[in-house]
Amino acid sequence: MTFDHPTADEFESFLRNASQPGNREGNARVLRHLLADCRPCQQRLIEMGWGSGRLDRLFHLPPADASGDEAAPAGGYDYKGAFTVTEQALAAFFAAGRPAESTPEELMAELAPLPLDEQTRWVSSYSRFANPQLVKRMVDASHASRYENPSRMLHLANLGRLAAEACTVAAAGSAPRLADTRTNAWRQYGNALRVAGRMREAEDALAAAHRLCAEGTGDPPLRAWLYEQTASLRIFQRRFQEAVAMADEAGRIYRELGESQTQASTLVQKAIALLYSGEAEAAVRLLNRAIPLIDQEGDPHLLLAACHNLIRCYIDLERPEQALSIYFEARDLYKEFNDSLIALRAGWQEGQLLRDLGHLRAAEEALLHARKGFLERDLFYEVAVVSLDVAAVYLKLGEVQSLQQTVAEMVPIFTTLGVDRDALAALLQLRQVAHQSRQAFELIRFLNSRLEQLPHRQTLK
User: Fold this and answer.
1) What is the distance between the alpha carbons of residues 319 and 312, in angstroms, rounded to a whole number?
2) Are 139 and 188 in contact (CB under 8 A)?
3) For residue 54, what is the enclosing H or E element?
4) pTM of the model
5) Is the pLDDT of residue 25 over 60?
6) What is the predicted pLDDT for the residue at 136?
């Protein structure tokens, strides 16, 4: 028996970051002790809350004891059987892939001057781009573009997918690691397709990611990310119960890992699903639970998303004073970002608040600015919804001609979005009854409900 027992920090590193190559030596020490039936190390795991049942759930291992009793004494655990399977998984994690000819930075620099279609052709044609590290770099760059440039997000995700598909077992180090690389690429590609409004293709891509994930190492963070992004797709598809279930599963994994920050992300996602399913009060409760868990410096985007959607909740609950109070608290947070889409969404929300509080001219200015920005980016769903907000402002102002002009501008937008005949008929009717406020407001509410059923909405998350 080796008496140099791993420390608590080494156990934490083993359980949270097993897939990182830099942890190889420490993880090997942990495995040697557990596979040797080291009682002190088993007891330390139990004291840290890592009974065999919890390990089974986290790593998807076959249960060592059919009873699944986590409360049994240390001597009752068959760690050797469980960790034999874990050792095999970690061997797949740590298998060294073939050294790459070039660094990811060099390969990205090589692609940068090329036209987009040439970048795609090069990645598909030349084996030097079949590099797992390059795949990760492209996935990360795609994710970073999600607010500012959705088109770039999709292009980079597609390059990552092509590079991952060209990767070999030799390059990845093992078949499970290759499956993980491809899972990561298809996961991001599916998410980028969702952001682009291509829902059917997003569904197919994420289904491929789930199939590949089942062939991989079982890396817990990778599975959690996949559940989160599948939940985002389910929100867009208005399959809210499934979205909540996916967010809950991701949250369970993060709880097992002790990651409160990433767990907060799943709470925000679950709240968004509840908000769009009409359960704004429940969403408020979840967001108020999530916000204290968020590290503003570590993930300012998540904090902004939580505040933004909390404001949205209070707008939907017709409590504009509370919404305005939170908006003022979050204004400095909005200003921290250079992303133009975030600025547009903030301006749109400000316009809604000003409208609901009766500051109609200021609301008109804010909403028209937001609509112009969305139109310049071909975000037609957002253009349509903001246009209905503008129409409501003109209706409150009694400006019939401005309302009719706004409706006329909306007709080609609604047609582009593929709304049904009932919605188009309601839009044309709105133009005719612009002088009858009660009926016009009912039509605006009807049109908003129809737009909410379209799979084009983007959330700030």
Assistant:
1) 10
2) yes
3) helix 52-59
4) 0.72
5) no
6) 95
